[in-house]
Amino acid sequence: MAGTEETRKPVLEMVQAEGTDEGCVTFVLHDEDHTLGNSLRYMVMKNPDVEFCGYSITHPSESKINFRIQTRGGLPAVEPFRKGLNDLTEVCQYVLDTFEARVKEFSDREAAMD
Amino acid sequence: MAAPMRNVDEIRNRVILGEFGVKNVHSTDFPGNYPEYDDTWNQKKFQKNFRIDIIQMDENSMEFDMVGIDAAIANAFRRILLAEVPTMAVEKVFIYNNTSIIQDEILAHRLGLIPIKADPRLFEYRNADDEEGTEIDTIQLQLKVKCTRNPRASKDSSDPSELYINHMVYSRDMKWVPIGNQADVFGEAGIAPVHGDILLAQLRPGQELDIVMHCVKGIGKDHAKFSPVATASYRLLPEITLLQPVKGEMAERLKRCFSPGVIELESIEGTPVAKVVNSRLDTCSREVLRHDDLKNLVKLGRVRDHFIFSVESTGILAPDILVSEAIKVLMAKCRKFLNELDSVEME
Fold this sequence. Notes:
The complex is a heterodimer.
Chain A: E1 12-15, E2 24-30, H1 34-45, E3 50-57, E4 64-71, H2 78-113
Antiparallel strand pairs in A: 1-2, 2-4, 3-4
Chain B: H1 7-13, E1 14-17, E2 22-23, H2 43-49, E3 51-57, E4 61-67, H3 71-83, E5 87-98, H4 104-113, E6 116-117, E7 139-146, E8 148-149, H5 160-163, E9 164-165, E10 168-170, E11 174-177, H6 182-186, E12 192-193, E13 199-202, E14 208-218, E15 229-242, H7 248-257, E16 263-268, E17 271-276, E18 298-313, H8 319-346
Antiparallel strand pairs in B: 1-2, 1-18, 3-4, 4-18, 5-14, 6-12, 7-11, 7-14, 8-9, 10-13, 15-18, 16-17
């Protein structure tokens, strides 16, 4: 595996401080900015198991964000991260379906009026 | 006038426009902040409260309302519309002959900014190390114009349109050169700039342009020429509440403090009484707060989860398609990290 695979740029890294449990993790998301950072932060904060969630852009010249999650009660931090991503995907899907239905309704109404 | 909102509801739902500042800007509805509210994410509750209303839509611009969503997600859609929905634009310009007075790089810059009417969903991104370009990732355009003197012009005319032939180079002179199977795929309609009347350069007799261009797929984050929107913006729905009945001359002055159509005067027992008719039209200039006798009679605010989006396309894709693509881009981002998480778990 090591020889044949070319080096890939990292997409997601997880940084955990020494001595802490799995509940406090900083995810480093590469090639991302406020677009995903803020919306994902909002979805993760809506989770009652999350004690702290925040993101920061380490330096404006580098396109990566540090996304930190701290959970209550020892729940592994990957859980709310995954749930946040799933919830955000569900929201987007519902927004897309609603939008397309309304656009179709609007254009049908316009066509009927002509 | 509706009954005044409970203070808590106001903090949760309204942004207050005060005389010297704006209050309650950030959303605070997270679990644990308000003891009597359950703010945990509930997809069913979201779906019940969420709605989209299309106000106006034509082939280049649309205005629609998104109600019941948070600013973080609405802003993500706006940012993606501006910077991450891909389009095709001129990237490589091969200048074989340019004897006009427009410098090569200026001309190349101008060519890059011209919107090209090609559906970016039918193309792929070019690989980083690929120099030539294949039919699936490149569109080739050619611009070949030579300016000559018009032999039939009268002796004493000074009008350049009469004296010279081809002295203005427009974007309609950019001709598509099909590569590979593009002629079958795009055949009839062909590929051309969205607008044919963009002036690129002016020539005089003896000057000519012989240029070949390669268009590739890119996103606005890389270069603004790839941005598919003229602009995409949103504003929050304004809300104007009259705290007391306003009559007579003060009502007239109150009406003039807001944009036309927001406040109407209805005649009750002979005196004009101000009534808020359509707060959506207001531009929130807060002019009323400059008048000492009027500023305590109204309460200005915005509804925090009601976004009035305005999307104007450059003509490459229809605005409703652009919004759909933007939502799909956000979903793709989430999916990318979910896949990454799954592959890390596997190891």
